[in-house]
Amino acid sequence: MDELAIKIIFGLVMVIGILGSILPVLPGLPLVFGALLLAKILGYSSISWWLISFFGFLTVLGLVLDYLIPVATSKKLGGSRYGLIGLTIGFVVGLIFAPVGLFSIIVMPFLGALVGELIYDRKSHRRALKAASGSVIGYFLSIVYGLTVSFLMFGFYLFKDIL
């Protein structure tokens, strides 16, 4: 197979990983890093090992932050585990209705977190609303981190090895 075709395949896997930074069914950041690492090991990338190691560190940090950021922002605003579970369910439901509009990917996680918080504590609607907001803010912050690092890795690969 032509070397450029193989490099493009690695690039396509990275693009799938970038989508996985948004979709919870794909391990986005690890997929992008894994493709980059494999390309380097197999000799299809000229990115330095130092930079690969740095991206590896950012990937591991991202995996930790994927769990810590939503929990921290939710807890900071009075959230519970029920809200995080509702957030996840809401995001999956939002993805199902995503063809209807991107709006559902934003609204459904919030509604899921709100319902989860109301199940946890039916009496305090204000606390549930605040905690649901914290869950969603944290979740989207972790998505922004994953997308940023994924695009950074893909950009380096694209400009260093393909173009």
Structure description:
By secondary structure, this protein is mostly helical. The protein has one domain (3-162). The protein has helices at 3-20, 28-41, 49-76, 81-96, 103-120, 125-162. 35% of the residues are buried. The mean pLDDT is 87.
Strand content: under 5%
The assigned structural class equals mainly alpha
Structural Rg:
19 Å
Estimate the helix proportion, in percent: over 70%
Weakly predicted, low-confidence segments = none
Largest sheet geometry: none
Count the beta strands.
0
Distance between the termini: 18 Å
The total tally of domains equals 1
Fold blueprint:
Layout: H1 3-20, H2 28-41, H3 49-76, H4 81-96, H5 103-120, H6 125-162
Helix pairs in contact: 1-2, 1-6, 2-3, 2-6, 3-6, 4-5, 5-6
Write out key terms for the chains shown.
0% strand, 6 helices, 163 residues, mainly alpha
Explain briefly what this protein structure is.
The protein is mainly α. It has one domain.
